[in-house]
Amino acid sequence: MQTHKRTLRRPRGQMSKINRLLPFTTAPLYHALQLMATGDAARFHMPGHKGEPVFTTYADLFAIDFTETYGTGNLYLGEGPIRDAEVAAACYFEAGDCFFLTGGSTQGVLAMLATAAGAGGSVLLDRGCHKSVCTACALLDLTPYFFSSELIEPFAVPGALDIAEAERQLIAHPEIRAVMLTSPTYYGVRRDIPAFADLCAAYGKKLLVDAAHGAHFPAVGLPTPIAEGADLAVLSIHKTLPCLGQGAALLMGDRIDRRGLRENTALFGTSSPSYPILSSIDLARAYVEGPGHIAYLRAATACEELRRFVDARTRFSALGTGDFPDLDPCRLTVSTAGTDMTGQTLSDTLWSEFGVACEMADERNAVFILTCSDTGSSLRRLRRALRKISRRAQKGEVPHPAAPFPPAERVLSVRQAHFSHHGRVPVETAAGMVCARPVTPYPPGIPLLWPGEKITDSHIELLQERWYNKVDDIYVVITD
Q1: In what order do the strands lie in the sheet with 176-182?
Q2: Model confidence at 229: pLDDT above 90
């Protein structure tokens, strides 16, 4: 796959402007907070612990947990060492600019859609998008149109997105302002971002990418979505890099209004962002830009070795480049299809008998994330567990190709349905009713039904029989 190379405007506040007191550091925010923590100051400001080790477990975090005060900078004003850290991240991720987030990729998804589509706009969405996109549609009163992907068998996971279908939607609905897709997916499938970038450029639309699971890509030699031509992309730094939970980064290209985007990150973010989270984003970037690069290449090698091991030494199968050419090199998807086990059974047995916790499981698969932090003993434990469990698995019929979740008729806007008078009903009684909340087995957090869509017998059949985790109840619109 070819990558698009753009000439991007350099972000304001170049690396040369990083605090001159810290010429030795590659993590400017973290080290600025360290210097403040070791300084002689009486702190009569938030947070209430004042940097003191009130609870010894959090002593190191409390020490660097500040608020907007002298020397810390302000996230939403884009100043101080926070800004220096964002500039360093923008350079590393090959983006026109980068804004740190403490509300995870959810905050970034909301900010992207508000910036690119605006209130009351229309968007074209990968049907496999995260539930946070549904939240954005409810809050911003966006009209969603969808396109989807074929399933990769026997894994029954979404593969390549249908670009021809996306183009038909853009022609049929010229009011669409932005296209949003997910890459990589929860299962490690990478989408053809350059092709969609060309499509969006041809029709004058913005391309948004939920790359929550791809923050480690530069560390393994893969481009970020911005480098491939996207206009906006969000990365969950905490998902695959050594960063505190909720740490994320929003990347932008050169066709986006910087000030408006920053304002929208503030609109959907807390007014008291966590400095430990912010500094951990900074540290994670500095690490993968330095020694962590080698550690992630090792993780990718270990993942490929595990794929070969699963295929050669177990009755299970691993999603590999023979099944789909473009995969996350650090994501292991193991399928139980063709045995008498389900993915959930494999996951439960791994945990209960071997103390191995996977990221998620569905009817046919268990998914594992590999990072710099996986030890040799952990990897050996996973291999041993998969081999032993496989010996118990009996050969079963290879399942028939999975039918995609049936399309649904929209009868209310997402916003109307979400804020309607609603109630919860058993799934088996919901046929003919209108969905009021996204039906989202979690993980992976992908809505199967959206608010405002009419529920049919076909939807209920698949929900009851095989779709992800069990769904017992559905929130529906209640009419007088």
Answers
A1: 97-101, 248-252, 232-235, 206-210, 176-182, 122-126, 143-147
A2: yes
How far, CA to CA in Å, does 277 sit from each of 247, 248, 325, 343, 385? 6, 9, 35, 33, 34
3-state secondary structure of 377: helix
CA–CA separation, 345 and 330 (whole Å): 23
What tens digit of pLDDT does each residue of 358-410 get? Answer: 999 988 999 999 999 999 999 999 999 999 999 999 988 888 887 777 888 99
pTM assigned to the model:
0.90
Q: Determine contact, residues 224/34, Cβ cutoff 8 Å.
A: no
Query: Around Cβ 391, how many Cβ atoms within 10 Å?
Result: 8
- Dist. CA 50–CA 65, nearest whole Å: 8
Beta partners for 456?
A: none
Per-residue confidence (pLDDT) for residue 480, from 0 to 100 = 63
Average pLDDT over residues 207-227: 97
Half-sphere exposure of 71 (CA within 13 A, CB side): 17
Smallest CA-to-CA distance from 265 within 429, 53, 111 is with 111
Element (H, E) at 161: strand 157-161
Which of 17-21, 252-256, 432-436 has the least mean pLDDT? 17-21
Yes or no: say if 223 and 217 are a contact pair by the CB < 8 Å rule: yes
Instruction: Tell me 467's DSSP state.
Output: S
State whether residue 97 is helix, strand or coil: strand
Most confident among 8-12, 31-35, 39-43 (mean pLDDT): 31-35
Nearest of 433, 445, 441 to residue 462 by alpha carbon: 441
Three-class SS of 254-282: CCCCHHHHHHHHHHCCCCCCCHHHHHHHH
Q: Which amino acid is at 246?
A: Q
Please give the backbone phi and psi of residue 179, each rounded to the nearest 5 degrees, phi first.
-115, 135
pLDDT at 20: 38
User: For residue 330, which of 384, 370, 365, 382 has the smallest C-alpha distance?
Assistant: 370
